[in-house]
Design brief:
With 336 residues, the chain is α/β, with parallel strands linked by helices. Helices cover 46% and strands 12% of the residues. Strands 2-3-1-4-5-6 form a six-stranded mixed β-sheet, with helices on both faces. Strand 2 and strand 3 form a beta hairpin. Helix 4 crosses helix 6.
């Protein structure tokens, strides 16, 4: 049996761009596919995503001075105003209160709450809050077991590096998710010398959001796309990575498709001159910002628009990534 060709990829990008989702898809498609005991381990995190999203929205109703449209929603909101009592529902064996489902439904059906949901960029509401809230009747059952889709959409920040290895055809691929939180980035350029390739994830959907850590720690307002561009430029200009192939995945195209219908790209990027609500022109504009940096630094890269939570799309993404890694290894003498 011929030996496998070794490839090492650094998975880089700012916080909440989909790196962990990409790694989870690798495990689902090429690993153990999340057996039941492993899915059960994620149960508290999924329920936390649901209840914390509702809690944040209730607080935002007051901060943004948005009125509830129905008395039912106003009453239901009281249940989610304080996270402390809700912590009791965040254990694997916690008995559920059936009234939580009805209170969630009353909240989610309210037009005032829907307005605050659309303004989630103003208070750092997690990307997939709507998925978890709409799934509350299933997630809040006593016999709930997280689905793979729940696990892929679950928000769980990576504060340290995570390494996984998979045998894919003739290639043994080791992937290092270096974490996107600001405190984790210092490891990026020192952790591994001469990787086979760099996989850089950037979120299209963050065009209307600020960096949460900057808001909290530095009291500054920085657009998330601007921060991603700064990280991308630092990566392109870092001498040890000068000859390392870069694959750019412009992720969360599905979320961008929804957001662009109610948030104008020009409100956040005044240089954008395309029509409001035009998905294709909007994402090409954002893609062009990364291309401009590559041209500035004389770097070649390949890119693709992606939806990392979509497993079928992921398989196409991975085929794209593997093809380019293989080609670069051949050109550099890495394959015989």
């Amino acid at each position: 049996m011929p030996s496998l060709v070794e490839a090492r990829l650094l998975v880089l990008g700012a916080s909440d761009t989909g790196k962990s989702t990409f790694m989870k898809q690798m495990r689902y498609v090429f690993g153990d596919a999340f057996p039941a005991h492993e899915r059960r381990r994620h149960l508290p995190h999924v329920r936390r995503n649901l209840l914390e999203s509702l809690h944040k929205m209730v607080l935002a109703m007051d901060v943004l001075a948005v009125a509830y449209a129905t008395p039912e929603a106003r009453v239901a909101a009281g249940r989610f105003a304080d996270m402390v009592p809700l912590e009791a529902f965040l254990h694997e064996d916690s008995p559920m209160d059936p009234s939580l489902v009805e209170e969630t439904r009353a909240m989610w059906a309210d037009q005032g709450v829907q307005e605050v949901f659309r303004r989630g960029n103003e208070y750092h509401l997690m990307t997939n809050a709507d998925h978890f809230i709409a799934s509350a009747p299933r997630i809040l059952r006593d016999d709930y077991l997280p689905s793979v889709d729940d696990i892929l959409r679950m928000r769980y920040p990576t504060h340290c590096s995570v390494t996984s290895t998979y045998d894919v055809g003739e290639m043994r691929m080791t992937m290092h998710d270096m974490g996107g939180q600001r405190g984790a980035r210092g490891e990026w350029v020192t952790h591994f010398a001469r990787p086979t390739a760099i996989l850089f994830l950037a979120s299209l959907a963050e065009f209307d959001q600020n960096v949460e850590e900057a808001d909290r720690e530095e009291k500054e307002r920085k657009n998330r796309v601007h921060e991603s561009l700064e990280i991308f430029e630092t990566l392109l200009g870092y001498p040890p990575f000068h000859n390392t192939p870069v694959i750019l995945l412009l992720n969360k195209a599905d979320v961008f498709r929804k957001k662009i219908t109610y948030h104008s790209l020009a409100d956040y990027f005044p240089q954008y001159e395309g029509p409001a609500g035009d998905e294709a022109m909007g994402r090409e504009y954002l893609s062009g910002l990364y291309e401009g940096l590559a041209v500035k630094h004389g770097r070649h890269y390949v890119s693709r628009f992606t939806e990392a939570t979509n497993t079928e799309d992921f398989k196409a993404i991975f085929s794209f990534v593997k093809t380019h890694v293989s080609r670069n290894m051949i050109s550099r003498g890495g394959l015989l």
